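Researcher: Here's a chain I'd like modeled. Treat it as a single chain, no partners, no ligands.
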Amino acid sequence: MKLFGGFKKKKKKSEEKNIQTKKIEAKKPEVKAKKTIGRESEKVSLQKEKKKFEEVQLILKAPHITEKATELNKEKFYLFKVIPKANKIEIKKAVESLYKVKVEKVRIVWIPKKKKGRASLAGFKKGYKKAIVKLKPGQKIEIMSR
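Model: Modeled as a single isolated chain. Structure tokens:
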């Protein structure tokens, strides 16, 4: 390998320093000062809140109101119909952000489709995913029926 190294041009030390400083300068990002106006920042925050609300609305379909659900409300359990792809963490964040409460535990139940129909008109009632949310002590949600 020494044979091939002998044919290379030798660089001066000053050239090597210039090359190193150019590499360092190229790596430094330029920092630009941002000018924000009060109204623009308010618009941005409102847009973020609106986006969060839309995301929550996509996860939680509706509160599940039945006789059994109203009895569970006394024990700090609340039932919601949710989208099939939602997981426990997403449901917890959605309930906390929408109702401004602290969630202790989330359980998920799949309700299967049910066969319905008469004589020749047979079909199925859709299945759905249901979330049972338990709140921390001292928390409460006001759920109104439709």
